[in-house]
Design goal:
1 helix, Chitinase A, domain 3, elongated, 9 strands, four-stranded antiparallel beta sheet, five-stranded antiparallel beta sheet, about 160 residues, about 5% helix, Thrombin, subunit H
């Protein structure tokens, strides 16, 4: 049977867990218990995820873990924060004056927003705190600073 290698288009099922064992994402029927709309949690069963090994569209160590697998085989890979989404960067947390936000916007803690940078680049942020005078925005990836474990099953090589 063929083994997955660089350049192959593959389909995988996966479940991602944090160090405490909680599931943050899965393609195998995980039912989301997260109340944070837009958090990126996977609330519905999905088809296997498809990608080309070596295109670096996923976490590199996730892609590398698939190399050498045959369809039907599973692997568990632990990925340190530095090799996943990096460490949290406090400089990516900003406190802005409410007066800088359009009057018709009513941000709430936990809300995901998009900020447009001066060069026109959109930047996704999470509202982490709202007071009468300020709004705290966090542009760190939600999984920054966290070690991740993935259980990956190779479904198909095409």
């Amino acid at each position: 049977m063929a083994q997955a290698k660089n350049g192959d288009r593959v389909r995988v099922h996966y479940t991602g867990r944090l160090e405490d064992g909680s599931i943050f994402d899965s393609s195998e029927g995980f039912v989301d218990t997260c109340d944070d709309e837009g958090c990126g949690c996977n609330s519905n069963p999905t088809d296997p995820m498809e990608f080309v090994i070596g295109e670096n569209k996923l976490i590199p160590k996730f892609e590398q873990a698939v190399i050498g697998l045959e369809p039907g085989q599973r692997v568990e890979v632990k990925i340190a924060a530095d090799d996943a989404y990096g460490q949290r960067v406090e400089e990516m947390v900003a406190v802005v004056e409410r007066s800088e936000v359009p009057a018709d916007m009513n941000p709430e803690a936990g809300q995901h927003m998009e900020v447009i940078l001066q060069d026109g680049t959109p930047l996704p942020v999470l509202v982490t705190e709202v007071t009468d005078t300020t709004i705290t925005l966090d542009a760190n990836h939600p999984l920054a600073g966290l070690d991740l474990t993935f259980d990956i099953k190779l479904v198909e090589i095409s």
